[in-house]
Structures are given as structure tokens and as C-alpha cells.
Amino acid sequence: MDKNNLKTLFPNLEEGLYNEIIQHGIIKEVKAGETLLKVGQTIRSTMLIIDGLVKLYREDDEGKEFFIYHLDAGQACSLSMVCAAKHETSEVLAKALTDATVLAIPLEFMDQWMSKYKSWYQFVITSYRNRFEELLKTIDAIAFTGMDERLEYYLKKQVEKLGNNLKITHQEIANDLNSSREVVSRLLKKMEAKNWLIIHRNSIEWLKKD
Prior knowledge:
Strands 2-6-4-5 form a 4-stranded antiparallel sheet. It is elongated and about 55 Å long. It has helices at 3-9, 15-24, 78-85, 107-116, 118-144, 147-162, 170-177, 181-193; strands at 26-30, 35-37, 45-51, 53-59, 65-72, 93-96, 100-106, 165-166, 197-200, 203-206. The protein is built from 8 helices and 10 strands. It has 2 domains: 3-142, Jelly Rolls (Sandwich), CATH 2.60.120.10; 146-206, Arc Repressor Mutant, subunit A, CATH 1.10.10. Helix content is 47%, strand content 24%. With 210 residues, the protein is an alpha+beta fold. α3 crosses α5 and α4 (107-116) packs across α5 (118-144).
């Protein structure tokens, strides 16, 4: 791991901490679609995203998935930080949406750094706060808006991360929103009629300008 790249992705850490991250961190290369974290899995390390895009889900007893938020380069999985610190198992599912590079920090070093490096403590707190704010936005979209507004919000978030041409099926969207493919397809057709998007086979081209 190159220190300059690490400093660019995760600024404002102490020099000694950068050295320890490089010394003890474990680089993992994952392919798109690969699972990084399973529900019920014992957390033995926390994840820093070096490259690529990771998607976090909740999963019910029947295996249905519900999208929570994305993690991209320069961000950390705060849920893994909290679970690791409390020696708990994961309650979320994490998958690589694209090919990704992840830096795993073993639990014992994370514990040491919380007291040894003030910048690591601040990084953990900030990461948790940012992910919590994203989670609140997701909850607001569920609790206070209709499915049409939820779908628009979801697509905009996807476009922010992946660009205007989304390689995604109606069924994948339905899974993320815990809805049915029929409902999603009907709403997408309404959006297409408004010239918000163009539906292609297994992809959607977003046109709407805010």
C-alpha cells in the first residue's frame, strides 16, 4: 500500500498511524458481486475502501435484501468498526458492486489505535456519524414518501455513484427497495413517459436534470 495514496484517501491521520496501517493492514482484491460480509459473520477486522464501490444491505429471515447505502473509495464500514469493537457478529450484508480493493484492519490494532491515536478516534466517530446520517435519509425515504419518490431517490443515488447509464435490472431494483418487479416496472415506465429516463434491456439511462 502506497503511503501517499493512503494519505490522499484518508487525510489528517498521524504519520505514525499511516505507518501502522501500512504495516498491519491486509489488502484484499474482490470482484464485482463478491460478498465481503455476511449476516451473522463474526467481525475480526474493519474495512477501509481503497478503490471500487461496496453496497450494504439488510437481509431478512427469508433472504430478501434491502439496500442501506454505498461505500466508496476513502470511506470505512462503520458498522464493522462498531461490531468489531463490541465483539459482535454482523447484522448487515456487504457486497462489491464493482471490482474493489479493501484494506482490512485486524481487530486488535483497531482497539489499540482508539487510545493511541486521536486522529483514528476522530476518524471512527466521523465515519459512524456520516453512515448514520445516510441511514436516516434511507429511513426518511421509506417512512415519509411514496414508492414513486423512493424509486426516484434510489435512482439518483445510483447515478451519483455509477453515472447516468445504470447496468441494473428491474428485479434488482425491486430487491433493493423491498418491492415487486411489477411495481418497479410500472413506475419506471411512468418516468420514461415523462422523459426522465430511457429503459433499455438490463439497463436504465437517466435523463432527468435537477
